[in-house]
Amino acid sequence: MQLCSRCGGDRVVYHRVYSNERLCRACFIETFERRVVRTIGRYNMLRRDDRIAVAVSGGKDSLALLHVLWKIEKRFPEARLFAVTVDEGIEDYREEAVRYAVEYANKLGVDVYVVSFRQLYGFDLQEVMETSEYRGLGLQACSVCGVLRRKAINYAAKQLGATVIATAHTLDDIVQTYFMNILRGDLKRVEIGLRREEDGAIPRVTPFRLTPEREVVFYAYLMKIPFQASVCPNASQAMRDPIRKFLMEYDEKYPGSLYAALKSFEKILPAQDKEFTQRRCRVCGEPSSKEICRGCELLTFIQRGAVCGGMS
Ligand code: SF4
């Protein structure tokens, strides 16, 4: 019989392959939550009196993050937690996700702020994509969605007076992004989710930076968190999809590879980040590697009527 590596109990529910630990339910939950607290401390992600805007999509990762931060926040009465949800307008998908996000935030007693592309930009993602395809403009759904969602979260966080934005990017997501940046030849866009205080920008943090995605899923399952299980209809077009598959297979074959990759990136990247952080977008004032950030560039392109026929 296999016993829990920590408490010796006989109800093992999880095998943590990279550390060869077998864990019972209670020990899995305890080590999972402790690692999030350690990650926050190690990278100075949060302060005792922060107003934290948690980006919640309604999927497993973000709801698990809301749950664990809600538990941690109880120990810090000066801190305040909000959920921020963006409705990009993805047909037959996002409505359901928004419902999960709002219902779970309400259940925890966390104020939730929903903002939509239509309300902010005057168009839905769906509409942009349909018109782009019709006109042969070659816009990728995920590129438009990712960039404009980031802008929308920043907007909502500012409305709430947030001092920090927490996103549910896991160890897997962060390593994938580092690889994608390298493949795009974009080494300047480097440190992801590490708190940086800069004028005009709310810092972003990623408390799941050291947590593999499969453990986040298992935590959500153990905590019985209801989440949207269906996948976005655009997900297969995402540039990160082949990288995600490759890294997942590699890490399965050679457990611990994701941690090793993160460690390597952390050694080589911070020094190269300075130039990027010193620049500001001329339009919105957010940090940008170019004179005008990708978000403002896209918005100008779309709103000028090139895609949506002159929408404001
Ligand atoms: Fe947006 Fe792409 Fe994610 Fe769908 S898969 S929510 S389009 S970034």
Automatic annotation (TrEMBL):
Keywords: Metal-binding, Transferase, Zinc
Chain sites annotated for binding Zn(2+) 2: 281, 284, 293, 296
A GO molecular function held by the record: transferase activity
UniProt keyword Zinc present: yes
Top-level division of the source organism's lineage: Archaea
Alphabetical list of Gene3D superfamilies matching this protein: HUPs
Alphabetical list of InterPro entries matching this protein: Ncs6/Tuc1/Ctu1, Rossmann-like_a/b/a_fold, TilS/TtcA_N, tRNA_thiolation_TtcA_Ctu1
Keyword Secreted set for record: no
GO biological process: tRNA wobble position uridine thiolation
SUPFAM superfamilies: Adenine nucleotide alpha hydrolases-like
Domain named tRNA(Ile)-lysidine/2-thiocytidine synthase N-terminal: residues: 52-244
One Gene Ontology cellular component annotation held by this UniProt entry: cytosolic tRNA wobble base thiouridylase complex
Binding site for Zn(2+) 1: 4, 7, 24, 27
Name used for this protein in its record: TIGR00269 family protein
Protein species of origin: Caldiarchaeum subterraneum
